Amino acid sequence: MDPWPIDDDLPQPFPPNAFDPVGAEQVVRLADAGELAAALPVLVGFHPRESVVLVALGGLSGRRLGLTARVDIPAPRDARPLAAALAARMAHERPEAVLLAVVSEAPDVEAFPEDPVHDGGPELPHRTLVHELLLALDAHAIPLGDALLVRGSRWWSYDCAEPCCAP
Fold first, then answer.
1. DSSP line for 100-115
2. Which residues contact 94 (CB under 8 A, 6 or more apart)?
3. Cα distances (Å, whole numbers) of residue 160 to 23, 65, 123, 165, 166
4. Is position 56 within any domain?
5. Domain count across the chain
6. For strand 144-151 and strand 97-103, is the pairing parallel, antiparallel, or unpaired?
7. pLDDT tens per residue, range 119-133
């Protein structure tokens, strides 16, 4: 009697495509900002912390992920030169748009009292950095698709002014 009988009803140990060539194109679909926030570790190769991540969008649909750049959040005095350098690099890709994610555990900040958009309540951190990036991208005629803050496994949009988006 065979000590290792073959049972054809058992599942295969590997899926049929487990040994496809390493260079085979993989398609990952991201439908919304939350999925982009969740995919950041895959896009940059590790779990970013206190980082700025820019993702170029292009292709025929204008939604194909392209160049992904990650840098540490700069000191406030370095925000403008960093934004200019990142925007210039993104411009080489000729993207249809760029997505921005700020990954930070920084607490909310108080809004400026003179700010007509906010009621003086808390505001998302690093707004000055986001503003500098927006201006730098605009100088290269690159639209900003969305700007997110990713903090504590949650995300918020810098562009959302609705009460439900409050930090």
1. EEEE--PPPEEPPTT-
2. 58
3. 39, 23, 11, 6, 8
4. yes
5. 1
6. parallel
7. 556 889 999 999 999
**Using N-to-C axis directions, what is the helix angle for 127-139 and 79-92, rounded to 10°?**
40
The phi and psi torsions of 41 (rounded to 5 degrees) equal -60, -35
Per the domain annotation, does 2 fall within a domain?
no
Nearest Cα neighbor of 67 from 46, 82, 88 is 88
Q: Is 102 inside a domain boundary?
A: yes
Give per-residue pLDDT as tens, 82-91: 999 999 999 9
- Burial group, residue 55, by CB count within 10 angstroms (0-12, 13-18, 19+): buried
pLDDT digits (tens, 9 = 90+) for 134-145: 999 999 999 999
Kindly state whether residue 7 falls inside one of the protein's structural domains: no
The pLDDT of residue 136: 98
CATH classification of the domain holding 70: 3.40.140
Domain range enclosing 132: 33-165
Cβ partners under 8 Å of residue 54, min gap 6: 67, 68, 69, 70, 86, 90, 98, 99, 100, 133
Q: Are 86 and 79 in contact (CB under 8 A)?
A: no
Residue 28: band (very low, low, confident or very high) from pLDDT cuts 50, 70, 90: low
The angle at the Cα of 90, spanning 85 to 96, to the nearest 5 degrees, equals 145
Helix (H, G, I), strand (E, B) or coil at 123: strand
